[in-house]
Design brief:
Elements (H helix, E strand, L loop, with lengths): L8 H5 L3 E3 L8 H13 L3 E4 L13 H14 L2 E4 L14 E5 L14 H11 L3 E5 L3 H6 L1 H11 L4 E4 L2 H11 L1
Parallel strand pairs: 1-2, 2-3, 4-5, 5-6
Helix pairs in contact: 2-3
């Protein structure tokens, strides 16, 4: 993981994920512009800085529309949550769904222990991790990965599902 305060260096690095931690309260227009640049570059952005975008359904159109356009243009994403500054949200996620193609290849190579470290973090914080997408090539290449997916899908902590509709069905079955 790299950290920088040079916002101009971020797009050139073409990161897959960005944690944007600059204040949105003191500089809302600049924060939005920074986040839009990262999204247009294809990055998934996580930030507490733009709280008005916490729920896109109630977000002001002048904020929501540029974000949706940047997502359409660059393929990035935005998750707004957290503390900015000094207060927490009343709703915390229970499920974190990650597109399989966004995961580092080390996740699927069990000898690296990367998947175990990630999965344990989610279990420690009592968050369900869901890997969404086609992982068939990884399953074909590794009996250990097949076993991990089989056992994980029997648990409540980590799931591997082929698509969002399957995830939706599993969640509905639990409620």
């Amino acid at each position: 993981m790299n950290a920088t305060d040079d916002v101009d260096a971020v797009p050139a690095a073409r990161p897959r994920e960005v944690m944007y931690a600059a204040s949105g309260d003191l500089r809302p227009h600049e924060a939005l512009a920074d986040v839009l640049r990262a999204i247009r570059g294809g990055a998934g952005v996580v930030t507490p800085a733009l709280y008005a975008l916490y729920d896109q359904r109630s977000a002001p159109p002048e904020l929501r529309e540029p974000v949706l356009a940047a997502i359409a243009e660059g393929g990035g994403s935005l998750f707004v949550s957290g503390v900015d500054p000094g207060w927490g949200n009343d709703v915390l996620p229970e499920v974190v769904a990650v597109p399989a193609e966004r995961l580092d290849e080390r996740f699927f190579s069990l000898g690296t222990r990367f998947a175990g470290e990630i999965m344990q973090k989610f279990a420690n914080y009592r968050l369900r991790l869901v890997v969404v997408g086609d992982i068939s090539r990884h399953l074909q290449a590794s009996s250990a990965m097949r076993a991990l997916v089989h056992e994980s899908n029997r648990s409540d902590h980590v799931w591997f599902v082929p698509d969002v509709d399957t995830l939706d069905s599993r969640l509905k079955a639990m409620s």
